[in-house]
Amino acid sequence: MSTNSAHKLLAWLSPSYPIGAYSYSHGLEYAIDAGDVHDAHSLQIWLSDVLQYGAGRNDAILLAHAYRADGDALTELCDLAIALSPSAERHLETTAQGAAFAKVTSAITGHDISAMPLPVALGVAARREDVPLNDLIPLYLHSFAANIIAAGVRFIPLGQTDGQRVLHALFDQIDDIAKQAETASLDDLGSACFWSDIASMKHENMTTRIFRT
């Protein structure tokens, strides 16, 4: 990866990039409130499942296909990404962040990127900016995991060092998922992360919430 590409990825995937990523917990807030996630170990298990069997893997596959898609194929990918959202909050999570990413990145790069679900918008931007796909996918998953861990650090609560231990323990898994996603077909999409999906639905009805999802 060139230094120029690295700069772009570091900017796009940074918590400071103005897409509001810090305000989403991907259903984790409910899982913590219910007592299912209560320490570093349970957070690592929860997040490992989300990466391997849930939205992490699906987003990586969608991102890879968006990187190569144009025209009608890109429209179909957007529809598919929205259809894969198992709840109203998860729909909000991917569409609101994707729209914000497209708006900011269009203004910065001069490319006209339409509002799309986040992994699709990121794939389109990366192709137009010549960011290598094999670097993009693992770093996207890293950012996805780090954002959820940050929510856990704030809400469990969990120490910053423990949060980094959880992230470090997921590095090999993230690399494996990224390699698989790069060559996966759309037929490989699917989720078996049912409790995470249910948690995102139950989060909608929590009386007090810190996060949007």
From TrEMBL:
Its main location: cytoplasm. Required for maturation of urease via the functional incorporation of the urease nickel metallocenter. The gene is ureF. Belongs to the UreF family. UreD, UreF and UreG form a complex that acts as a GTP-hydrolysis-dependent molecular chaperone, activating the urease apoprotein by helping to assemble the nickel containing metallocenter of UreC. The UreE protein probably delivers the nickel. It is found in: Cytoplasm. The lineage of its organism: Bacteria, Pseudomonadati, Pseudomonadota, Alphaproteobacteria, Rhodobacterales. This is Urease accessory protein UreF. The keyword Cytoplasm applies. Gene3D superfamilies: Urease accessory protein UreF (1.10.4190.10). GO terms for cellular component: cytoplasm. One of its GO terms (molecular function) is nickel cation binding. It comes from the Bacteria. The keyword Signal does not apply. InterPro entries: UreF (IPR002639), UreF_sf (IPR038277). Keywords: Chaperone, Cytoplasm, Nickel insertion. Transmembrane segments: none annotated. It comes from Paramylibacter kogurei.
